[in-house]
Amino acid sequence: MATPVIEVRDLHKYFGELEVLKGIDLRVDEQEVICVVGPSGSGKSTLLRCVNRLEEPTSGQIFIEGDDITAKGCNIDRVRQRVGMVFQQFNLFPHMSVLDNITIALRKVKRLKGKAATEIARERLDKVGLADKADAYPIQLSGGQQQRVAIARALAMDPDVMLFDEPTSALDPELVGDVLAVMQRLAEEGMTMMVVTHEMGFAREVGTRMMFMDFGVVQEEGPPAQLLDHPASERAKEFFSRVL
User: Fold this and answer.
1) Lower CB count within 10 Å: N or C terminus of the chain?
2) Which is nearest to 88 in space by CA: 159, 40, 123, 156?
3) Is the pLDDT at 137 greater than 90, yes or no?
4) Is the dihedral of CA 75, 80, 83, 89 positive or negative?
């Protein structure tokens, strides 16, 4: 069996005395699109942040392509080059142009020269449909355009897997579609993805597997259509009855 892109073993996370993740086991194979759904406070975002080591796991192990990133001495910066992350908020530098927002990590982390970094940045902007916005500043863009710039910035590092933490939750409804369309194209091109989302239509159409989380555990998982149309647990039935 091929090495999974992401493997999580018995992951626990406490904030003080509050246990937010209660022994998560997870495997994400190459080109899978895992949609993680569940109510607020269920641990979805914490799980994603642990996978990128933005949150420090209390116990358990996380492997990226076979490398234990929870091991002592792990080079976290090198790990993050392989794991792109897009957040609810766009986290763009307001004083920098779109182009500079994308090239800064290429120059600082990958040590690319200006011309090479600019070439990659322009290519990724074209990929998200914003080739004409390279010289704009974030304040000149809509929320949806800013989120697409954030996706282009993550893609510029040429990651092996992309993590999306509710990437459309801060957007006005009419701006959501453009962001989801970019994510769907990435999935169609074979990008491995973990997506925390409340966009059930996207999960149904694009997801290869859905995980329903509640109270810090994976309550149920399977093909998206199966969970959405025929959830097995009472908790999942209650949740989906409210969001569909």
Assistant:
1) N
2) 40
3) yes
4) positive
